[in-house]
User: What shape does this take?
Amino acid sequence: MDKALTLPEILACIGNMLDNHNVISCMQVCKSWRSELEPLLWRSFTFNKSDLGYAELRPKLPLLQKNAQHIRQLVIKQMDPTFQSFFTQCKQLEEVRFVAQEVDEDDDVDQIWDRFSDMINNHGRLRKIVIDSVPWPMTNKVLETMERCPKLIVLETKEVELDVTQAQLYLKLCSKNLKRLSTYADDYDHPEFPDDLVFQEMRYLDICHADGISMDKQLTWVSRCPNLISLHWESWGGQVDVAKLSAILSGGACPNLTALHLIVNLSDEEITQILEAAPRIEKLSLPRTEFGVRSMAALRRHFPTLRDINLQFCSKVTSPMVQEILRSCANLQSISAEALNRSDIILQPWACRGLQMFDVGIGFDDENDDSPMTHYRDVYQRLGQLTELNYLSICSEDQSDTYSRDPIMVSLEAGLDELATLTKLTFFSCKTLLENNDLRKAFEAVEWMVEHWKKLETFEASRNVMFMGAGDNMVEPYAMDLLMDHGIKFAEFISPGRELDDGDGDFYEGDEWTDQEDYDDHGYDMDDFETYEHYGPIDFSSDDEYADQYTQHMHFAYTGLE
Assistant: This one.
């Protein structure tokens, strides 16, 4: 057995399942383990900008060159010319992300793009390129170079400027081997679509807030993707040609298009027309639309195939609608909505026992007897039957802001212990609900979560609950300490309309300002906080081995943790 653990192929299998912290621990076992496992520390590397003070922490050039062959994912925040030899030696790259945010006055933009082009030219293993908010136009050369990457199948661009020529080169690049494309807030110069331009390999297409290209031409783009599986279309400007979109769905232009994520202005009648035209819907995301009674009637035809649905911030979606989806869609894996009342929950059992994500605000607006704890436990018992859950959020933003409905209580007394069956849970959110408890009960709830949810990775709540230490209300140990000790990230929920930072490093807490220094004095690094703005559920499936997990909601994570 001991000899087996020295074999490179065995160590490679073990190492691929470890994070960097555990790799470092294993490297201390013996010299052979160190030799085999050390390259794994270089699987992902971030090359930071020198003007942010990170240059002093950056490994020296010889060490970078020595380990360039081990890097599979590279994040570049500065195309430093003195390190060009290192960039070009990263020949095993599978993913590169270019996120430069500004250029020094002495830098030549064309030269920066030339260096990036030299780095990826004819790259035999490169499968994914991300150009993230680079604030200067791309060049013809870099677009032509990306086209020559033989295995490139994923491209993400954000806030990129493309003139007429560059837009045509961009579309030509996208029509080659790309299977997944995300274009977010890119600025096109009214590109044309030649009749012979077809995006044959495209499976996943995200067009979000594209500028300089009409919504009609965006639909033309969609119609040229005959093998499209998923469309994420986002724009708050312009009128959607619903008839054209419906014709695309019903006319066979995209016969495999079963995932629609439409964050555009749509009325109840327009949504109905789209759902009636679609042969089959598996994933549907319609946040902030006028989804209503007519849309619900059209959706029922798709209940047998529906897997994911996002109806967040849809004011016409009622609790009985949400309950009907849960009790009727046996294949449902993910649901996101605003309101679900206890009175509807108890009417009939849910059919979706394989649900992986539940993101619905649970309310109690119809309870008049003297046993509210029994009502809470009824809900927790129903949730406890969803043993496949890995994401659970039980409070909507509307509840946390206005409390228009009485929310569920989060405490052991109310029945939180009924969720001991959720052994696969990795994310739990109660937003501001713990603020309704006294500090000791709130801490007991957090303590129970840590003890029973062994796979929990992220806990979302309001920050002032997590710092349970104020005068006579001191609770030891702090809930934050407890989470940190178990490697659980704390994600702070920011209520709608609340400012996180006033620009001076201070945080606004309702009616008073709290200095960041107050938290630093307790030993907490504010970079350890994550804040989320939720727009719906995660798509847990991926039809492409090398594509990132697709999200059917805009989910921005601002965090200092890499």
